[in-house]
Amino acid sequence: MSFAVVLVMAILLAGCSWFHRDHAKATPVQVVPVTPVIVTPAQTAAAYVLLVNDSGRFVVLSFPGGQVPAEGKILDIYRDRLKTAEVKISKFRQENNVTADILTGEVRKGDEARGE
């Protein structure tokens, strides 16, 4: 009977060491290098839509001081970070306010206008 007990103990101990061997032979995790993300602020001035004339298909944009774009420049209109329209700057301007013709899309008061 003592031989049977020794045999069972040997099997149990061998079984436990078998589980530990799997952990020791596990392949190491390879670390993938991460490239840094570079964020640069937009260099173009953001304007805001002050007035929308749907029947005349034009808007009035308000720019920060001294940053009014040239006539003929095409700007994108954004609402909630989604592009909704395109406008083209016209020749009519007064100080920081300028009119722009609606080329495509839908524009609402408060939308943001940005150049490319």
Describe, in plain words, how this protein is organized in 3D.
- With 116 residues, this protein is of the alpha+beta class.
- It has a domain of 68 residues: Thrombin, subunit H (Beta Barrel), CATH 2.40.10.170.
- Helices cover 20% and strands 37% of the residues.
- It is built from one helix and six strands.
- A six-stranded antiparallel beta barrel has the order 1-2-5-4-3-6.
- It is rod-shaped.
- The termini are far apart.
- The model has no long low-confidence stretch (mean pLDDT 81).
Give the second-level CATH assignment, the architecture of the domain at 47-114: Beta Barrel
Count all strands and give the number. 6
Q: Could you tell me the mean pLDDT?
A: 81
Taking pLDDT < 50 over at least 5 consecutive residues as the criterion, the unreliable ranges are none
Helix content: 10-25%
Measured by DSSP, the beta-strand proportion falls in: 35-45%
List the helices and strands and how they pair.
Layout (H helix, E strand, L loop, with lengths): L1 H23 L22 E7 L4 E5 L11 E6 L2 E13 L2 E9 L6 E3 L2
Antiparallel strand pairs: 1-2, 1-6, 2-5, 3-4, 3-6, 4-5
Short description:
The chain has one helix and six strands, in the order H-E-E-E-E-E-E. By secondary structure, it is an alpha+beta fold. It has a domain at 47-114: Beta Barrel (Thrombin, subunit H), CATH 2.40.10.170.
